[in-house]
Automatic annotation (TrEMBL):
Keywords assigned by UniProt, alphabetized: Oxidoreductase
Gene Ontology molecular function, alphabetical: oxidoreductase activity, acting on the CH-OH group of donors, NAD or NADP as acceptor
One Pfam short name: adh_short_C2
PROSITE patterns xrefs: ADH_SHORT
Protein name (record): 3-ketoacyl-ACP reductase
Membership in a protein family: Belongs to the short-chain dehydrogenases/reductases (SDR) family.
SUPFAM superfamilies noted in UniProt: NAD(P)-binding Rossmann-fold domains
InterPro entries: NAD(P)-bd_dom_sf, Sc_DH/Rdtase_CS, SDR_fam
Oxidoreductase found in the keyword field: yes
């Protein structure tokens, strides 16, 4: 096989992407569609799903709160019916969570962050892994962590805690599922340009008593390449991990962040 061909995911791959109404998830779904995959997405926002389907008519889609186990079960069942099985699970759904000192964070916001970012990964895994075990076509799980899953992140403790936990989950599952030929990896995005990051910067600036502009510059100074990454950078890594070129990559936490030095 030509080396360049190894970089292309096999046409017809059956892919499920959670939290894909917008942002990173939507970019990943679009990239897989462009690679001739069959893609199913879900999101908690019905309007986001409608916009995604209007932009990408080939999408299969459903609405679900990923922190709700029963709703996730329904999504997996619908995806199996629509796609005819599953080859790739992209556990992408997540929220930014609250910003503030640990003694000031509302317990309900803490629990919501843990449930949405971490419990949801398990809810998808428990139903998707049996489907992945049924396919021999290079099955893979891609979990979305964060640069906050390798660095401490003051005033964002619930978010960072979930992202570190996802890395532990991935490394454990790579060992557990390796004998079934299922690869498991985490992508750790850095500072991703877009509306979500703008909101995070604004919230952190307010918490620290800084202007938005000063806070944004502080973020950039922490990055070796002095620039944010894009959703397309993350999508490209997901495609690589799903391609034959990634067939021996498992148990890895791969940063796509321009080398964030500290948070």
């Amino acid at each position: 096989m030509n080396t360049l061909d190894l970089l292309k995911p096999r046409p017809g791959l059956r892919v499920l992407v959670s939290g894909a109404g917008a942002g990173i998830g939507a970019a990943i779904a679009d990239a897989f569609l462009q690679a001739d995959a069959k893609v199913y997405v879900c999101d908690v926002d019905p309007s986001a799903i409608e916009k995604a389907k209007a932009r990408m008519p080939a999408l299969n889609a459903g609405v679900a709160d990923v922190s709700n186990r029963e709703q996730v079960d329904s999504i997996i069942d619908d995806a199996r019916a629509k796609l005819g099985g599953l080859d790739i699970l992209v556990n992408n759904a997540g929220i930014a969570g609250p910003t503030g000192g640990v003694d000031a964070i509302d317990p309900d916001q803490w629990e919501r962050t843990i449930s949405t970012n971490l419990n949801s990964q398990y809810y998808f895994l428990r139903k998707a892994v049996p489907l992945l075990k049924e396919t021999s076509d290079c099955p893979a799980i891609i979990a979305m962590s964060s640069v906050a899953g390798r660095l401490g992140y003051a005033f964002r403790t619930p978010y960072a805690a979930t992202k570190w936990a996802i890395v532990g989950l991935v490394k454990s599952l790579a060992i557990e599922l390796g004998p079934s030929n299922i690869r498991v990896n985490a992508i750790l995005p850095g500072v991703v340009a877009g509306e979500r990051m703008d909101r995070v910067i604004s919230a952190r600036a307010e918490s620290l008593g800084l202007t938005y502009e000063a806070m944004r510059e502080e973020y950039l100074q922490k990055i070796s390449l002095h620039r944010m990454v894009t959703v397309d950078d993350i999508a490209a890594m997901a495609l690589f991990l799903a391609s034959p070129a990634g067939r021996n990559i498992s148990g890895q936490a791969i940063s796509v962040d321009g080398n964030v030095e500290y948070l």
